[in-house]
Amino acid sequence: MNQSNTMFSSLQPARVWAHFATLCSVPRPSKDEAALRDGLLAWALARGLAAEVDTAGNLIVRKPATPGWEKSPGVVLQAHLDMVCQKNADSEHDFSYDPIIPECRDGWLVAEKTTLGADNGIGVALILAVLESDDIAHGPLEALLTVDEEAGMGGARGLVPGVLQGRLMLNLDTEDWGEFYLGCAGGLDVNVVRHSPAEPCPASYEGWRLTLQGLRGGHSGVDIHEERGNAIKLLVRTLHGLAAKFPLRLAKCKGGTARNALPREAEAIFALPAGLGQPLAEAVAGWEKTLRDELSGVDDGLRLLLGACAVSSVLPVAEQGVWLSSLHAAPHGVRRMSRRVPGVVETSNNLGMLDLGPNGGTCNFMVRSLVDCGGQALADEIISLWALSGTPALQDGHYPGWAPNPDSPLLKTCQEVYRRDFGTESKVQVIHAGLECGIIGAKYPGMDIVSFGPTIRGAHAPGERVEIASVERCWRLLTAILAELR
After folding, report:
1. What is the pLDDT of residue 340?
2. pTM for this one?
3. Is 206 a catalytic residue?
4. Which one, of 47, 1, 37, lies nearest residue 21 by Cα?
């Protein structure tokens, strides 16, 4: 499966980057990882490794212990195969077909107009490099490469108890070098559906398209505390304000493409009585200034673009009111900071996707929390808001958090190796994002789990990048930990 090119061949460790080059070349959106997984299965079998695809679609590869290490504790190396697929509006990239084209820049590997897939491709590449090696001492190894992590953790959910034999697990899906993660947030979705008959656009009305662009986006858990703009919320707020000033008839409103990514762009189509183009343009300019002022220093690229378009059907006035008022009132962002883990978000929510047309539509809220009751309370609040208008809002896809175990023997080993090999102390963290550790740990009670990874910035957004030097350090750390677990 390995391929190389001039850029990747110049990076170290070569073995890791060669595997990441393969991942960049094979499309792997969530729920469509089969081509990559089946290629890796064939690669593993060709190397004489025991490998199988389980009923959930996960790839499990087993590598025997180094001779003399057979009695060492079994270790599970875990990462996910899929990636979040986001691109800029001016990009023609097709994630179902085109390879990712990264470039080296100032010590980072970056994809300029798309996501890079370093989340979690670097973790996968590290694991493949261990499986490939014949010069690393280790006990019995199992690689668990899951599918569908980014779109609902379907692979981890479908993992059957009793398949894995190892009692220690190293998850390679976090994004700050020098930090060991020992806990993560759980999560759930609230999905809203509301439909109604469309109405014809009044004959005397003109159509307009309003697009909000230029936001940074990002990971809906890791970046939520930075108060970056949410394109859906900001556009709805603008439409709500315009509707209070003009007899606006809404036809469409759409934004966001992934439930776990902060929406960077959103677009609305609406109609106004003919002759209101100039005051509309002035009002939009005023809203752009207001929003840019509010987001100064956080999302300086925000733009509102207005242009004429055709409109044939619109939402009924009452339905338009329900959608704009409910979306405007719906929560988004940090609800509560943790009292137990200072500096970490406890509960948050992301309005990640909206698809509204003349006949109604759908939207999705992703709730995260370190405390299950806190996430449930926020989800109930969202459901109650929509219930005021008789709108169905259903909870779905709950997954548990990963409760920290500060007395973890595996953590102690990881810290000792880090201190010895890098001459400084590591940090222990809890992350406000969903890792598969909580789900896997619930299926395998007593499994000792620690997570770490290289430094990645901008995950789930175009411009995602990984620090090249931190990948080499992760490789050194991973192999040293395996050698210590004897």
Report:
1. 82
2. 0.84
3. no
4. 1
